[in-house]
Specification:
By secondary structure, this protein is mainly β. It is about 15% helix and about 40% strand. It is built from 2 helices and 7 strands, in the order ααβββββββ.
């Protein structure tokens, strides 16, 4: 089966963005992806948490890919030049969480996902995906620490007859 192309993947992203702020189906994270696959005609493998062909490297991920997180945690610490700092920790997957990649920019990705808050609505969230430290021109240092794991899946479409 061939990979979904960029236009086909965009249809999955469009499906999810049209549902921002609403509960999709039963509100579970996988339901957003499963309903999106059905809506756009992607092939869903028989295994429960598999969403297509595995993409081995984060650098090869592209919009419309599906991330399957397992006990994933991201701690972001922003340290000001005066030494003061703020820290935030996000968790995904107790034990698993499913999300659609909307974009990736360096060490941070934007996901379309549901069931990350008590109201179960579809949300757009930025999250670190690589452990890294950067310092901007003003001397503000941002450290992202990632633990746990994820598998990236490339959606598949039916082969043309």
């Amino acid at each position: 089966m061939p990979d979904a192309n960029a236009q086909q993947a965009q249809r999955l992203i469009d499906f999810a963005t049209q549902r921002l702020g609403r509960v999709e189906g039963n509100g579970q994270c996988w339901t957003l992806v499963d309903n999106g696959f059905q809506h756009v005609g992607f092939i869903k493998p028989a295994s429960t948490y598999e969403w297509g062909r595995v993409v081995s490297n984060l650098s090869d991920a592209r919009p419309g890919d599906v991330f399957q997180f397992t006990r994933f945690e991201v701690t972001t610490r922003v340290t000001q030049p005066d030494g003061s700092w703020q820290e935030q920790t996000l968790s995904r997957g107790e034990p698993r969480h499913t999300a659609i990649l909307e974009s990736v920019n360096g060490n941070v990705a934007t996901f379309l996902e549901s069931n990350v808050t008590d109201d179960q609505t579809v949300k757009r969230n930025d999250m670190g995906v690589r452990t890294a430290t950067t310092t901007d021109d003003a001397g503000v240092r941002t450290s992202i620490t990632v633990s746990g794991s994820f598998i990236i899946y490339r959606p598949q479409v039916a082969a043309n007859p």
